[in-house]
Amino acid sequence: MDIVGYADRYSVRAGDTIRFMVSSKLPSYQADIVRLIHGDVNPEGPGFKEEPVQAVGTLEGRFQELVPGSYAAVEDSPLLRLKGSFTLLAWISSTTPSKFSQGILTKWSDFGGAGFGMMLDGERGLTLCVGSADGRVERISTGVAVRAPALHSPAWYFVAVSYDSSTGRVMLYQQPRTIWPMDETAAVVEREIGQLEVAENGLPLVMAGYCEGEDPSGPRIAGHFNGKIDRPALYGRALSLRELESLRDGASPSEVGDGLVGAWDFGRDFATDLITDVSGNRLHGNTVNRPTRAMHGHNWTANHIDFTLAPQEYGAIHFHDDDLDDARWDVSFEFQAPLDLRSGVYAARLMEGGSEDYVPFFVRPAEGATLSRILFLAPTNSYLTYANNHSYARTEYSGRIAWEPSTPQDEYIAENHLNSTYDVHTDGSPVFYSSRRRPNLTMRPKYNFWYLRLGRGGPWQFNGDLHLVDWLHEQGYVYDVATDEDLQNEGADLLKPYNVVVTGSHPEYWSSQGLDAMDAYLAGGGRLMYLGGNGFFSVVSFPPDSTHCIEMRRSAARPHDEAGQNNHSFTGEPGMNWNARGRPSGRILGVGSSTGTGFDYSMPYHRLDDSYDPRAAFIFEGIGRDEVIGNFGLKQGGAGGVEIDRADYSLGTPPHALVLATASGFSDHYQLIMEAESVGDYSRGRRRGGSQNPLVRSDLVYFEGPAGGGVFSVGSIAWCGSLSHNDYDNNVSRITKNVLDRFASDARS
User: pTM score, two decimals?
Assistant: First the structure.
């Protein structure tokens, strides 16, 4: 990836401006705006399609670095410029204790040797750094490493370092919360270093890192700490051993004599980047690159797994050296979408020689413009949740290592430690946040996820949704496009003007506000075409001040998820799937999310008795009574597959819904998931593979809604991959067109 970019937003209205941030290792590159139509390069299909819109021109290349790593910072203040005695302290749980030179609480200039700081230095353990005004640098360690925590067995340590300028003595205090007999990780070290005047610096006080240099934009932070920090504090004097022990045992920092400069309570403002100083000195700060908040601290009792019920027990922040919320690249160029530019899927195409990148975006109708009857709702929540997914790098599939960086995008993702919420951080902890303010290289035309088609690769998410965009284009439909993020910001008002809303192939992730908007739209007579699988299934949330970032938690459902971290820091709501939250997808779609998942072969549909009901006659117009539906397609050879849903009245399918057709006979790569089972269906000994379990199937479902509304669901990610077969003349295309024509019409019967 000699050229790579991202945009400042996912969607823009015609007439408005979108900005692009580009990093180029090449001296120049060509930038153009194109309309994307079909992104799948599979030679069995229509091939890649784009239309030129506007040439931006030849631009000067400039390399822009990705700088991951989260930390918290408090701006420099006279109160922080301590020249004499001081004490730094915190509770910590280090997830990479062998890593050298991790900052815990520092006002330290590593490039100048000025100031003071508390570090963790691998096998050397807790370390004090102090630089004097005469250029002397002291670095003293306990010489004892701390333990790494186990998944459900935290290793909390109360750590402190102090310097007494009146005596010239330092003390390092490293004590585990639970002290076992013969525990070699506990240490108290005292040493004489002589009297000195601490060298001042104008740098911020940094938590979970230290300053290694300065750039034009400000201090450069390094030494990122992996793990949790809880209740850090700074005193302007050297605390005694007894005072440190009282703080370890639960005393408030303000109760331990005088000299308190700052004490930061991370058990507040969970949804923001604020950190609050409770000392009274108002030395508040901010986190950078969104470390994980609402994490239980050293005093967690396990009596509550909801941080809103015991915020005082969730006073920790988990920092990571690969967190990245905002790449903060400079703007390379802008594009003002013409007022007459039709709504659709577009991209900034960046090219030079054999290097290229596409930065997709969506154009909405201009403010006040006449809208079409059809809205394609691009599932950007899912694009963002899966952004830069490389979780399969750690698994095996079909007898080989599953994920290898085989494309330029994969290589860039691996080299720059870009994560999706399906990945884990470098310390093995789960990723809860994902941001669009960085390159998302899996959201690209031409990009294939390797694990489809038994490792041969195939389009997924955004590139898979271009199958539908291409079909709409070839059929001559006039339609508008909006995104999940737009729905989050505008609610039901976004959907209300449209006769029909059409989903993409995998609209899995929904916020409560998004579901509320869809419920209101359907209750008011709206019509929905769910043309995907595993949709409306999992919970995401947005921070209150922005929609560039989402949060997703799985309630300790994965082996690396820690107990007690269920609830979203942004909203406080449980981070489970919507079935478990009492809002099953079957209630909206008529099919229950994710009956099974498999990445080998897709299957066709066979008509059921309900398909001959007069209510469904319009759907099957032009389809033979015994015609097999979708025994072809670009998604693993059939219209039913990849991730599939079934009708189940116990999981919310409306009682009047028609189950029109079913795809079954899947291989044992398709495994039934417990979340998709009703209570009566589940038994411990049940075989769960597609060849043995009749519940592993995909159903076509139709039902009427209030006020002339209705829902048509295919329950398959593979459906849209069959639309272009035989030059778009096929029964999957015909059924989709039949339904869309009826749903888009103004007729209400």
Answer: 0.94
